Amino acid sequence: KKVANQMLVIFGASGDLTARKLVPALYNLYKGEHLPENFVVLGTSRSDMTDEEFRKKVVAESSFLQSQLKEQSEDFVKKFTEKLFYQDLGKRYTDSYDKLANRIAYLNEEFGTEENYIFYLSTPPSLYETIAKNLCEEGLTKEDRGWKRIIVEKPFGYDLASAKALNEGLHHYFEESQVYRIDHYLGKETVQNLLVTRFSNSIFEPLWNRNYIHHVEITNAETVGVEKRGGYYDKSGALRDMFQSHLLQIVSLLVMEPPINSNAEEIRDEKVKALKSLRIMKDEDDILENTLRGQYVESTVSGKKVKGYRQEDGVDPDSTTETYAAVRFFVDNWRWKGVPFYVRTAKRMPTKVTEAVIHFKTPHHQVFSSQDVYRQDNKLIIRIQPDEGILIKFGVKVPGLGFHVEQANMDFYYSDLDSAQVMDAYERLLLDAMQGDSTLYARADEVEAAWEFVDPILKCWKESDKVTTYGYAAGTWGPKNSDELIEEKFGWRNPGD
Ligand code: BG6
Known about the structure:
Blueprint lengths: L5 E6 L4 H16 L7 E7 L5 H11 L1 H10 L1 H8 L2 E5 L8 H15 L5 E5 L6 H10 L10 E5 L7 H14 L5 E3 L7 H11 L13 E9 L8 H7 L1 H18 L8 H13 L7 H7 E7 L1 E3 L2 E3 L17 E6 L11 E6 L6 E8 L18 E7 L3 E9 L7 E9 L11 H11 L8 H20 L5 E5 L24
Parallel strand pairs: 1-2, 1-4, 2-3, 4-5, 5-6, 7-12, 8-17
Antiparallel strand pairs: 7-13, 8-11, 9-10, 11-12, 13-14, 14-15, 15-16
C-alpha cells in the first residue's frame, strides 16, 4: 500500500520513548523504504533544543542508532536524521501552540507533506485533552486539506471513569476514526498470529470451545524490576500497567468469535463483544477468591543482590502496589461458559516470557494407562515472546511393551521461516497509522470494556483491608500461595523450569 506524504509530530519528544522506540522504528521504516518520499518528523516538548541538538540527542540515546552509524555508514544515518526537526512548546503544554502551528505550516510547505499530519502523544495522559484542544484551536485537526490523525500512548486512563473522560475529551476535537490508541502488544507478530492460528486452520477452531478446552492460562513474566519508572509504576501497578491493556488484548483475541472479514471494524467489534463477556467480579469475596497481588522483595538472583520493590527509586517505602498480579475469571458466553482463564503478570520473575497455553480436556474415556493423566492432556502453547512460535504437546506411545503414553512436542519457531524479517512492534504500528489502518489499535469501546472488568478489582484492592500484597523473593515465580489460585492438579506452567 502506498504511504501518503506526511508529517509526524511527536509530543513529549525529549522523553525516553522517542529515542528508544519511535525514532529507531522510523529509521527502520526508512531503511526498508517504507516511508513516503516527502516525510518529516517534528519533535516537540518543553525542553529547549535546536533541530541539530534533537538529532544528536536521539542518536546518542539509542544504542541501535549508534550501531547503525557503524553498520550503515554515518552518511546513511545522517540522511535519515535530516528528516527530524524540533520545536519547543514553551514551559507548559498549555500555550505556544501558535509557534508550533507556524513551524508545522512552514515544514509542510518546505517538504510537501500535503497537510497530512499524525500527532503522536507521548506525554502523560493528563495532557491529551489540552493538546487536542490546542491543536483544534490552531486549525490543525480540520481535514479539509489532508487528513489528521492522533496517536495516544498507554496508559489510557487510570480507571474506567478517567478512560471515559479521556475518550470524551478527545472526541470533542477528533472523530473516533482519527484516534489511534496504541497497545504495542498488538504490534507483535505473535499476537497478530493468534487470529491466523485460530481462523485460518480447520484443526484448531472446531476445538476452540468449552467442549474441548479445560482451561486457558496466560503468563507474562519479566526479569527486570521497575527500572527507572518507580514514580509512574508505584501509582499504577501490574494490573493497570500490563493486565488492563496488553493481557486483556491477548484475552480478547483468544476469546473472540470469528469476524466476518479482516477489516478493522469487524475485528474490533468482535473483540469488544469478547471483552464484554468477561464475568465482572461482583463483590469482595469474589475478588479475594479470584485474584492475587504480590510484590517482589530483596533477594539474590544469579549471585547478585537485587533490591526489593519498596527500596526502588520513586517508590513509597510502605507501598502496597503490586508487581505481581494474577486473576482467575470466566467468560460468560456460549463458547466459553465454565472454562476458567488464569492470567498472571509480574516483574522480577526467573525468566522473561509471555505465553498463552490452551489446555485441552483429557479424552472422555481413558483406554491407556498413564502415570499422570492430567499431565498428559494436549496443550497448545503459543509463545508470544521470546522464542516466538507454537508448541503442541500430544501423547505418543512409549516404545516397548504395553501402551504407555508419554508427551511429545511438535514445535514451530518463527525464526525457522526464511521469509522477511519480523518488524518491531512500533515499526508495524507506526506504518499502519501512516496508512490509516487502525486494526491493531484499540478502539474507545474496547478500552472501556477492558476497564469495566478491571475497575472493581482495582477498587477492592485499594479499599479492602482484607486484601494482602504478598511478598515474593525477586527472581522467583511469585508469592508462595500463587498456586492456590489455579486448580491444584495443574499448577501454573512455569516455562523453563
Ligand atoms: C509496557 C509496560 O507497556 O510493557 C512495562 O509499561 C513493561 O512495564 C512493557 O515492561 C513490556 O513490554 P515487552 O514488549 O517487553 O513485553
